[in-house]
Amino acid sequence: MTNDARGMLDGRVALITGASSGIGAAAARLFAAEGAAVVVTARRADRLQELVDGIRAAGGRALAAAGDVTVPQDAERAVAAAVETFGRLDAAFNNAGYATAGALLHEVDDADYARTMDVNVRGVWNCMRHQLPAMLASGVPGAVVNTSSVAGTVATGASAAYVAAKHAVIGLTKAAAAEYGARGIRVNALVVGNTMTEMMEQVLDRDPELEGAFLARPVQKRMADAEEVAQAAAWLCSERSSFVTGAAVPVDGGWTAT
Question: Three-state SS across 137-190?
Fold first, then answer.
């Protein structure tokens, strides 16, 4: 834990979704180490509290606000918790996601399609609807980062529903960037490549043959560590990226370069 006042998120208040594991948990620890007060949300309250306890033990500021991003009231409550506890909201990393793979389009059942769209698209929508007004009210520059995927730019072997959902995240990001840029809020997306997270482990457990396909395309023939993605999110949430908005930023080991 650093107490360096020059941390790139020093003094900022950030909300991170999907924070109970993987990229979200790594981002929470990194954002706090870079000086931010963090509010973390996900469905698993026990995991969130363990994360918050660890951040506080290291000298950081953190608060758990358990909830489901697909429920508008939960998204509103997480934003309210940030404002009530830390005074405002400066940054948000909308990272909660749900992935499916290994099924052809006509084989994806209605429940998987609905869950994929609800978490990845409606979840980002619900969160931004409450995050953006809170940032406007604070009167300071705001930043939102949404987690998309290489599946948001090309078909990857993930399900057609996931590819469609992650394309939609980039569309929402660009629309919000255009609408709120003149009011001091930047909105960007991460185009995330293969990352070893709990969700990736679940996908590979269901279909181990996908690992070879996932690693065949990128320039860097490996999985990313969650913190590597978190570093990009932290930069985009900081004023060090002050002239970046409406972008889909690759963090993909070169997947989209070839």
Answer: HHCCCEEEEEECCHHHCCCCCECHHHHHHHHHHHHHHHHHHHHHHHHCEEEEEE
- 98 is a catalytic site residue: no
Indicate the helix (H) or strand (E) that contains 250: strand 248-251
Token pair for 96? 């909660």
CA atoms of 42 and 32, how far apart (whole Å)? 17
CA 144 – CA 14 distance, rounded (Å): 9
Are the C-beta atoms of residues 79 and 89 closer than 8 Å to each other? yes
- For residue 142, list its beta bridge partners: 185
Positions of the chain with pLDDT lower than 50, given as ranges: 1-4
Q: At what angle do helices 123-138 and 72-86 cross, to 10 degrees?
A: 30
Are residues 240 and 231 in contact, defined by beta-carbon separation less than 8 angstroms? no
Percent of the chain with pLDDT over 90: 81
The predicted structure's pLDDT at residue 6: 73
From 98, 113, 162, 180, active-site residue: 162
- Cα(125)–Cα(65) distance, integer angstroms: 18
Mean pLDDT (the chain) is 93
How many CB atoms lie under 10 A from the CB of residue 176?
24
pLDDT of residue 236: 98
Contact present, 95 and 144 (Cβ < 8 Å): no
What pLDDT, in 10s, does the model give residues 31-84?
A: 999 999 999 999 999 999 999 999 999 999 999 999 999 999 999 999 999 999
What tokens does 243 get? Answer: 């002239």
Q: What is the pLDDT of residue 102?
A: 75
Confirm if 153 and 173 have CB atoms less than 8 A apart.
Answer: no
